[in-house]
């Protein structure tokens, strides 16, 4: 009995001591502090997902046959500021990394800030940047818009800072991309710096950014992605919430088909990547044509009336997207920035005289790396993407860079091959490359030329009217928030 009283006494002491420490004003479901590694996992898996089909309609890769796609017919209007939600998570990770004094997470946070602002400014032009994301810390809920030149300058500064912060960093956790290897993050960051600088090729004469010299300096003195194994990619696994983004997607139903622009470019070059990207037409399947028979594939005209293409599809004359993308839960890795893309970036830079490397070598490396990608992920089709197959393909008349006689012809070869690597990879990169270079040629109807931007979100007109109105007037003239206005990077 005495033992029971003693135990009861100690239990009551613990209970009352605990009650003294309990603050009933704290919400146990709202965590004010967390380790940045937990935030990094969500940030990376979100950023590295496949970006949907909108860019592929605009880039003449697919067509819609059961209605008019605004992306396909270049009739879009507004886009959203959803990337700012992602940026809030990035900002929180940086704050938590500063709290625990871990430069690696801070550096990776700066990379993702640059990544999201890069997408935002290419989409709209001027955007809130210098005053953005200060609602909670400074009660600043109506930020002014920075000019696109200021945004690009800030992006390049943040990437430079990110690279410096990762010097000598240790292995980190919560990283599904590089398994905590901060050296590979540095290579991604520096490669992305090259990508951003090349995006500004029309501004190569700008003294404020010193684009050509900065590109050459990074290339010669910094580590960049130098093999396919170092590509910045997300691998998918057959587990709930970790499967390939397009797995079981209903968006590839009865109305979505391949576009003739993309299919014909591949067929003209006898490019075997067509077999992994496109399905055979219904008629070809019924006729027993081999997978390797290029006559088994056909696309719909992206500027024809959608019902006209629908009638051809109903007759079994138009290919659908290869069903491996929707039936295989681990179809293929998604690249945020691949070794192949880096090689095409270097090929263009060498062609422009920004670096001393050989454009043809970089160009061929990019093709071979993409063939290797399909050899790895296009299950059952590996025989078409061997090293020997890549070398044979490179020797083709419309692929061999030595057959291009002028600088503009060589640029078309490079950008076209870069375009071929972009099916369900890289989001809108291929479309922005077209806006910058004019390659490859995208057909359009009448005066509906490829739009150069999106209209600002309606929320900005309702909640930040003064600043969005000022930004529009500064860029395009009063009340001229149009989709074909040229922003600074394209002038």
UniProtKB/TrEMBL annotation:
It holds the Pfam family SusD-like_2. InterPro entries: SusD-like_2 (IPR041662), TPR-like_helical_dom_sf (IPR011990). This is SusD/RagB family nutrient-binding outer membrane lipoprotein. The lineage of its organism: Bacteria, Pseudomonadati, Bacteroidota, Flavobacteriia, Flavobacteriales.
């Amino acid at each position: 009995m005495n033992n029971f009283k003693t135990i009861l006494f100690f239990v009551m002491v613990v209970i009352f001591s605990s009650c003294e420490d309990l603050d009933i004003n704290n919400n146990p479901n709202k965590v004010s502090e967390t380790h940045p590694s937990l935030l990094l996992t969500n940030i990376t898996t979100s950023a590295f997902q496949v970006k949907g089909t909108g860019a592929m309609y605009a880039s003449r890769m697919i067509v819609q046959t059961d209605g008019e796609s605004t992306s396909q017919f270049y009739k879009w209007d507004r886009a959203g500021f959803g990337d700012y939600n992602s940026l809030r998570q990035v900002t929180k990770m940086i704050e938590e990394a500063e709290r625990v004094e871990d430069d690696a997470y801070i550096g990776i946070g700066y990379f993702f800030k640059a990544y999201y602002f890069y997408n935002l400014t290419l989409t709209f032009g001027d955007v809130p940047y210098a005053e953005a994301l200060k609602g909670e810390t400074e009660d600043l809920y109506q930020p002014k818009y920075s000019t696109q030149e200021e945004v690009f300058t800030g992006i390049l500064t943040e990437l430079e800072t990110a690279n410096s912060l990762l010097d000598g960093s240790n292995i980190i956790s919560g990283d599904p991309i590089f398994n905590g290897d901060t050296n590979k993050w540095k290579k991604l960051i520096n490669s992305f710096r090259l990508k951003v600088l090349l995006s500004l090729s029309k501004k190569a004469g700008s003294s404020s950014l010193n684009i050509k010299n900065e590109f050459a300096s990074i290339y010669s003195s910094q580590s960049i992605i130098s093999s396919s194994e170092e590509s910045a990619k997300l691998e998918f696994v057959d587990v709930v919430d970790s499967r390939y983004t397009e797995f079981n997607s209903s968006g590839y139903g009865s109305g979505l088909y391949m576009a003739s622009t993309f299919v014909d470019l591949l067929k003209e070059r006898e490019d075997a990547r067509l077999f992994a990207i496109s399905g055979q037409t219904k008629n070809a399947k019924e006729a027993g044509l081999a997978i390797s028979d290029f006559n088994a594939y056909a696309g719909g005209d992206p500027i024809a009336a959608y019902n006209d293409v629908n009638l051809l599809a109903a007759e079994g004359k138009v290919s659908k997207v290869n069903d491996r993308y929707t039936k295989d839960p681990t179809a293929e890795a998604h690249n945020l920035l691949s070794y192949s893309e880096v090689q095409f970036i270097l090929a263009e830079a060498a062609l422009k005289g920004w670096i001393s490397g050989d454009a043809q070598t970089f160009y061929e490396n990019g093709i071979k790396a993409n063939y290797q990608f399909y050899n790895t992920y296009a299950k059952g089709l590996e025989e078409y993407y061997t090293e020997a197959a890549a070398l044979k393909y490179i020797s083709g008349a419309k692929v061999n860079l030595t057959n291009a006689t002028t600088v503009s012809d060589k640029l078309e070869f490079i950008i076209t091959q870069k375009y071929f690597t972009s099916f369900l990879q890289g989001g809108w990169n291929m479309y922005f490359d077209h806006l910058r270079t004019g390659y490859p040629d995208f057909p359009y109807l009448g005066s509906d030329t490829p739009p150069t931007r999106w209209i600002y979100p309606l929320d900005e007109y309702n909640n930040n009217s003064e600043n969005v109105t000022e930004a529009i007037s500064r860029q395009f003239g009063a009340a001229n928030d149009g989709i074909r206005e040229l922003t600074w990077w394209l002038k």
